[in-house]
Amino acid sequence: MPFRAPVSDYQFLFEHVVDLQKVIETDRFAEADKDVIDAILTEAGKMCEEVMYPVQRNGDLQGAELENGVVRTSPGYAEAYGKVAEGGWISTSADPEYGGMGLPHTITTAVNEMMSASCLSLQLNPLMTQGQIEALEHHASDDIKAVYLPKLITGEWSGTMNLTEPQAGSDVGALRSKAEPNGDGSFAVTGQKIYISWGDNDFTGNVCHLVLARLPDGVPGTKGISLFIVPKFIPDENGEPGVANTLKVVSLEEKLGLHGSPTAVMQFDGATGWLVGEAHDGMRAMFTMMNNARLGVGCQGIGVAEGAYQHALAYAQDRTQGRSPIAGGTGTIIDHADVRRMLTTMKADTFAARSIAMACAVAIDMTTATGDKECKARAAFLTPIAKAFGTDTGIAVSEMGVQVHGGMGFIEETGAAQYARDVRVTAIYEGTNGIQAMDLVGRKLMDGGEAAYRLLDEIEANAEEARDTFPELAEPVWEATETLRETTEWLVSQTDMNDRFAGSVPFLKGFARVLGAHFHLRAAMGEGEYGARTKLARFYITRLLPEHGGLLAHAVRGAEDLYALSPEDLVA
Amino acid sequence: MPFRAPVSDYQFLFEHVVDLQKVIETDRFAEADKDVIDAILTEAGKMCEEVMYPVQRNGDLQGAELENGVVRTSPGYAEAYGKVAEGGWISTSADPEYGGMGLPHTITTAVNEMMSASCLSLQLNPLMTQGQIEALEHHASDDIKAVYLPKLITGEWSGTMNLTEPQAGSDVGALRSKAEPNGDGSFAVTGQKIYISWGDNDFTGNVCHLVLARLPDGVPGTKGISLFIVPKFIPDENGEPGVANTLKVVSLEEKLGLHGSPTAVMQFDGATGWLVGEAHDGMRAMFTMMNNARLGVGCQGIGVAEGAYQHALAYAQDRTQGRSPIAGGTGTIIDHADVRRMLTTMKADTFAARSIAMACAVAIDMTTATGDKECKARAAFLTPIAKAFGTDTGIAVSEMGVQVHGGMGFIEETGAAQYARDVRVTAIYEGTNGIQAMDLVGRKLMDGGEAAYRLLDEIEANAEEARDTFPELAEPVWEATETLRETTEWLVSQTDMNDRFAGSVPFLKGFARVLGAHFHLRAAMGEGEYGARTKLARFYITRLLPEHGGLLAHAVRGAEDLYALSPEDLVA
């Protein structure tokens, strides 16, 4: 059952759905013409199929282990990582000055998604490094950049993010890690960090930790937090790994999935680090990096959805069972209406989630290229939706994949369950999906809904344009958008934030449903009446879009009824 | 974090929601008065809390294993099983003539649900035995009854169901196992069966397999299948386990969850068995047993939902994180609106699913007691809904439980993930939830919708009754029921079954949403304006019931659009 990278889907999407053209027409991305992009996608796809996918099961069957303080990675991971790094796949968007390809983030997003589809555990390593590269590019001193960036970009070194502490999860401001000046420009970082993805490995020459900690004069809360780069081995005068730093992996977590990715508890004991960005301004640097990381995690969900979908589709085409209701005689289960419904739902939702993520990436690229405020607001608005809907889709699609397999889905040997277990954390890390939804109805509506309404205007304008060719699809999209507009207006008008938060997750889901319909409609417009994507759009708009009604009704109930149920009521 | 058996919830439900009174007023169940029922529920609850729950994690941490052909069960399972059997909890509804308690199936359903909540892996063993007891009570000869029933009822022996073969899953009629007459009234059964839950154990004196196989003159398909009882040890003249039969456990499956329950591949090599029921009539006997087993599996889902809910609630009340939006200062996460929304959803859906299951159980009891055709039709109609919605709820609630735990949810140590992994199979076995939905829109609407409409009439009458006290709840329930009626009419009018099947799962889910609202409304009526259950009903009806709209819109699309997407389109 080979994995087939969905290169043609990205190509279609870039041309007809999310308008990558405007990105490559900017000066900033002038070198990324269609030929370059096609070549990159094709090569990346090939690498995912031939290098990463073959080690996917290994990570599950023989996870990373801690042996005498050293992390031993899964069989084949070191070799596969070597090829990923060698191919330049860690740094497709990194600064060419330091060895990166400087391509649009949209291309990196597609590449990351394919890598996630083929081997999520291993892909998480470069994803972390990409986030670190970005944080350093934006916030580090030239000295730090010169030492770290070239080696992170080649993949010789890898990067991690150290935010969470036992008492400080979603509430980062509660962290207790400290940093004391050493007097030579460096700092002594002390504290314990948990859930550190790829906290160590046995295949990169160094592991560089970006650590949030508080300086002696840092105020309590998020405003007193600074960011430090703390390497496993302190670079010597030539920038090569030197003496070991005073930090260690205390333990690795036993997780539901993603066994190939070591999740570490890290202990820093006066470890030498250097400030990244300004003192007490660590959260800003962290947010730069986290925003794109959120999109990256969204794409992990979408990638797993693609992988799980292909896996289930292959099974459904192969598994003989019962009489075929369409062909007569013994048939494979894909002939059964409910199996067809599940597979089509999986594909339609994956396409919707992918379109949203790519639209977000395009907005990020346009912001990078033009500095345009509306583009920036668009990217910011779409990020929590891309993250939460992408990962929710990963979970829902891989769960459906298990169901398509019937009894075999519960048996680990088939690999269907691995997708569901691996992807589960994506709805939790990098800000839980609940946090994403709070961000959407809070921070992202602080403009009075301007960014939201601009997006809704575009959706309606597009639906108007589609009325002639696809009246039966354009009308429901237009109507749903109006409902979504009213819901958004209601949320914007709530001054007690808790009234917004009480319906934030259903709102985000409802918004994603409508956005997905918009992109499916654009796909139909790009492909014409008889195309496969048009049939898929019809399925989505007539069968899945109607879910927005229930979700948006839920979104406008406010907090009062919710809090009327006391904890005692909940126990009773 | 102790488990607390929801005894008071059943008591409330029996009194105010599903009318158990009419059951205990029948002659058949005259001995089961309220005091008896309360005592049974209380004792069963205590047993679940004190005997079964303490071994729940053991099954996950050290699953059943096959050692030299012998199944070794998880630590503590043998002792716990001994107490379950000793307490009579396997046979609360079994025939008193053979040692059972003869209580209403509704009580057994509640007991089974509590047992599932406390330790699903172990509970599956008595559930299988119960199914076997029932099949034998209805279909076996007096000789077989006399040998097997007393020992199954005490739990001295356990029972299994052997239906599935590698090539015959949902399509049971494709099975290849054979049975040849031995000439002495017994048969030589040969074949391989897969997915045999509790195919063997190390704590019962015998394991009795009910095996579907084909006699030499059995026609192909389901009409040529017969049912046999094939014991691990052939009973001697005193009915005690004698010589070992020619059957064995070939291997145990490596599963996503439910590790405490050994899932066996069984090999029968001319094993001695006896016919249960008439030759070639095995499917009928199997269906008797499967119908109640389906309700039993639905309750497994509900039980796990209850367990996962209590587990998440305890965590949310304990976990300090961030500023409380309602109390100010540092708060526990239950103060956060989205966590409150998740917990309330979990509780509201569990209540809805439980009510549906109990209503189904009451209908089964009324059928047993009176033979009434309408009761029988009601039970038949509710069974697939109870099974699918109960297990879907188990999956959704335990998934939310993981999410409530945040990062800790992905760490196996907390136990949140175990609920999600264990319950996953319940949507698959005993007929996948897709098969349940096909049954609902196919067989269960073959009466032209009569049973469905009778139920809808009752819901509307109840809503009418509630209009004075709860107008804002009664109206949406009434309206949703009208939409459901129209949807049902549409389905009934489809002559091509595939047009029904294409929307069967969304229809079942939509039906369950409305039924759940009905029972929540009844709970509010039973409890009055300020009760906790009334607040819960308000949450369900205003926030979750609206989902029915999207689901029912999906249900009436027919098959054409779905099949327009060819397998090639799905690959592209």
UniProtKB/TrEMBL annotation, chains A, B:
InterPro entries: Acyl-CoA_dh-like_C_dom, Acyl-CoA_Oxase/DH_mid-dom, Acyl-CoA_Oxase/DH_mid-dom_sf, AcylCo_DH-like_C, AcylCo_DH/oxidase_C, AcylCoA_DH/ox_N, AcylCoA_DH/ox_N_sf, AcylCoA_DH/oxidase_NM_dom_sf
Domain Acetyl-CoA dehydrogenase-like C-terminal: 455-565
Stretches assigned to the Acyl-CoA dehydrogenase/oxidase N-terminal domain: 78-156
EC number: 1.3.99.41
Enzyme class: oxidoreductase
UniProt GO molecular function: flavin adenine dinucleotide binding; oxidoreductase activity, acting on the CH-CH group of donors
Pfam families (alphabetical): Acyl-CoA_dh_1, Acyl-CoA_dh_C, Acyl-CoA_dh_M, Acyl-CoA_dh_N
Acyl-CoA dehydrogenase/oxidase C-terminal domain location: 281-440
Keywords noted in UniProt: FAD, Flavoprotein, Oxidoreductase
Cofactors named for this entry: FAD
Gene3D superfamilies: Acyl-CoA dehydrogenase/oxidase, N-terminal domain, Butyryl-CoA Dehydrogenase, subunit A, domain 2, Butyryl-CoA Dehydrogenase, subunit A, domain 3
Domain of life, source organism: Bacteria
Catalytic activity: 3-(methylsulfanyl)propanoyl-CoA + oxidized [electron-transfer flavoprotein] + H(+) = 3-(methylsulfanyl)acryloyl-CoA + reduced [electron-transfer flavoprotein]
Protein family (similarity comment): Belongs to the acyl-CoA dehydrogenase family.
The protein's role, per its UniProt record: Involved in the assimilation of dimethylsulphoniopropionate (DMSP), an important compound in the fixation of carbon in marine phytoplankton, by mediating the conversion of 3-(methylthio)propanoyl-CoA (MMPA-CoA) to 3-(methylthio)acryloyl-CoA (MTA-CoA).
Protein's recorded name: 3-methylmercaptopropionyl-CoA dehydrogenase
Species: Shimia thalassica
